Structures are given as structure tokens and as C-alpha cells.
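Researcher: Structure for this, please.
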Amino acid sequence: MGAKARSSNRQAFVDTPYKLYAGNLGWGLTSQGLRDAFSEQSGLSSAKVVYDRDSGKSRGFGFVSFSSAQDAQSALDAMDGVEVEGRPLRLSFAAQKNIVVAPKSQEMQSVEGDLQPNQV
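Model: Predicted structure, C-alpha cell format:
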């Protein structure tokens, strides 16, 4: 699984498998501010704050991605609990999104008046 770039308003977010969830973010913290907070961490690829689609306000969390698992672990150890804009960061490894593919709708057949899925 390689890195994927996701575009945002200003900079593309580089989505890597080595991503930290950053919680307890200040409402005024921007993606660039989050990136700046982690700027001294080795292997920093990208950072983004998540915003509400309707209101445009920060949801109070974001993600920081790294080029390796070791860099992500090092950043977690160094930055968890560090105050950024007056609030302590709450860091953890981000859960990988599992893409669920819905099964094809099963054709139904009538068997003695009851509808049952075909046996595959």
C-alpha cells in the first residue's frame, strides 16, 4: 500500500499507511498549524485538520502522516500530550479504513411460494 495524495484547499494531503490521529485540537488550529507543530519530527509527510462540511468549522481532530512506521512511532512518543495552542495533543495510530464492497444483489427465486436467495 503506497502513499496517495488527497487534495485539500491549499496543500495536498499525502495519505500514507503510517498515520497518526491527532485529537483535542484547538478550534482555531489549521492544517498548516498542525504541520508546523510536527515540523521537527523526522519523516513527516503531511498533516490535515478535519472540518465540518456544513459549517466549515474544525471538528477538533486531524491526521498526521509519516514516511515510515518508525517515524510515526517516534512522533507519537515525542508529541503525545504536548500543548499546541494551549491544548494537549491526544495522539494514537489512526485506524486503517476498511473498504467494504457490497455483495452483488442475489437473485431471488420462488420456491413453493417462498422467496429465497439462489444457492451459489
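Researcher: Any notable elements?
Model: Residues 43 and 71 are 6 Å apart (CA to CA). The beta strands are 4-6, 13-15, 18-23, 44-51, 58-66, 83-84, 87-88, 90-93, 108-111, 114-117.
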